Amino acid sequence: MAAVPPDASSLPRHVAIIMDGNGRWARKRHLPRQAGHVAGVAAVREIVRAATDAGLQNLTLYAFSSENWKRPPTEVGALMGLFRLYFRNDLEEMVARGVRVRIIGNRSRVATDIRQMIEEMERRTVGNTGLNLTFAFDYGGQEEICAAARELARAAKEGRLDPETITPELFATRLFTSALPEPDLLIRTSGERRLSNFLLWQSAYAELLFVDTLWPDFTPEKFLEALDQFARRERRFGSLPEAVA
Ligand code: IPE
Ligand code: IPE
Ligand code: MG
User: Fold this and answer.
1) pLDDT of 130-139, one tens digit each?
2) CB–CB of 159/128 below 8 Å?
3) pTM score, two decimals?
4) Which of 30, 62, 90, 197 is 20 to 30 A (C-alpha) from 183?
């Protein structure tokens, strides 16, 4: 299988990943769920390295959904502790690798110290021109779309916007992802086949790839295989392939 990244012309511009299966990975080993999350962070580190090595421009990772607050407090606490460790330990490597980090999601529900770490990461990497690495953290696609609609409705009510001028392009400028191209490839690990409220608007024409591998077992080699599969997909965007047209 592909051990080398596809050439630049067939690389997706933006890969988004639903990193799922940490809990099942731990259960298979008779370990607490938290151990699965620890292993999951190690996989994040490896995939970020592989993405920079492959020359990928945009990578978005679903780290915590707006619905994940429903999990038991001990698990939420363990996850927040891991985010703290990751943001603290990996910042220097991101800076050194030229990675620009962004966080999308609802920051108001996150602990103050984590919010400060996020702001520091974004500030320290703002000038970097390598991989755009985005973490979806306390993120929900429906919430994001509602917030954009609310903002446009407010502008219309205050007379700053003519509702007739609202287009998909204008709408997209009000989303968290306004600085990023739409994902071309959306991967979900662990065998589940659903979006779980991830990038609902942005994934309109994403190629979906569901892999059975649990997230902690998702190696750089498997990531390169996914890029290779993408390179062999035929994308149509509602039109017809060139040969037929
Ligand atoms: C993904 O793994 C990590 C987060 C959602 C934070 P899960 O914790 O959902 O693992 P499973 O789905 O229970 O195996
Ligand atoms: C989606 O996974 C969220 C993240 C990977 C961060 P979940 O495990 O929370 O999704 P459901 O509950 O199985 O749909
Ligand atoms: Mg899950």
Assistant:
1) 999 999 999 9
2) no
3) 0.97
4) 90
Under a CB-based contact definition with an 8 Å cutoff, are residues 158 and 151 in contact? no
The strand ranges marked E within the chain are 14-18, 58-65, 100-104, 132-139, 185-188, 207-210
Tell me the pLDDT tens digit for each residue of 8-21. Answer: 889 999 999 999 99
pLDDT, mean of residues 60-71: 98
Residue 168's Cβ-side half-sphere holds a number of Cα atoms within 13 Å equal to: 4
- In this prediction, residue 245 has a pLDDT band, given cuts at 50, 70 and 90, of low
Longest Cα pair distance anywhere in the chain, in angstroms? 60
Burial of 214 per CB tally in 10 Å (0-12, 13-18, 19+): buried
**Ligand 1 midpoint to CA 97 (Å):** 28
At position 160, the amino acid (one-letter code) is R
Q: Which domains does the chain have, with CATH numbers?
A: 11-129+147-229 (3.40.1180.10)
Please, what is the end-to-end C-alpha distance for the chain in angstroms?
33
Q: Is 138 a catalytic residue?
A: no
Both tokens of residue 124? Answer: 């320290």
Residues 6+ apart with CB under 8 A from 173: none
Catalytic residue among 7, 20, 22, 128: 20
Residue with tokens 């910042």: 91
Ligand 2: residues within 6 Å at CB? 18-20, 62-65, 68, 192, 194, 196
Catalytic site includes residue 20: yes
Would you put residue 106 in left (φ > 0), alpha (ψ -120 to 50) or beta?
beta
Other CB atoms within 10 A of residue 65 CB:
21
What local confidence, expressed as pLDDT, does residue 4 receive? 79
